[in-house]
Fold this protein.
Amino acid sequence: MRRRVIAGNWKMYKTLADTRAFFSSFLPLVAASKHCDIVVAPPFTALSTAVDAAKASSVAIAGQNVSWSKEGAFTGEVSAPMLAEAGCRYVIIGHSERRQLFRETDDNVAKKTLIALEAGLTPIVCLGETQEDRDAGLAEEVLSRQFNGGPGALTPEEFSRMLTPEEFSRILIAYEPVWAIGTGRTATPEIAAEAHRLLRRCAGEKFSVRHASALRILYGGSVKPDNIHGLMAQEELDGALVGGASLDPKSFAALVNFE
Ligand code: PGA
């Protein structure tokens, strides 16, 4: 059995005061929730406030991005050791907004995944096809390419430093079809499950069937309290990465406590 993960991505929302207010409403609502891992990804400026607010709880904090370098002259970037030092345990990598608006490539995603693992962080590697890809029948091709060029590239043949199977098992994958993000158009549970099966197959080919079956794959894209039941009824879905509905403590708690 793979343990579920419910992760919230706040994107570029919430001040420090908003962050404190969120945790004081949210934590009591999930205090008894032991059935899944709970993750919140605030903006960089609110990380230490969030870490502090969540420290007596089981809620883990994530960065929304990370540099592929450990340190250096990279104005505006934040490194994996810095995130770990700030108290983060997870980091989101390769979100479609970063791929589309900030030109992140699969190669960036591979490097970031490796450096995050080396810093002890759990990477949440996002991938997903656009509407045009799906309409053109290219969804599978795009997903395989993003998997194989990202975390799947971290094999002996294709990368200077390979992932150990144990490291690979720590990675979380988030299937987030771009057409479902922030649009209210959630993927049907069947579409999501089909994509997850494909990604698991890719992982099996690159690593091993055993590692693929342990791999946790989250779905993201307009997950709301009224559609999470249908999605999580698919055994391929090991949790959710939530944008809009993670901003409100009551709706995010409803997602954590959906069972
Ligand atoms: P959404 O965002 O839930 O608002 O669609 C998901 C995401 O971007 O991770």
About this structure: The chain has a mean pLDDT of 95.
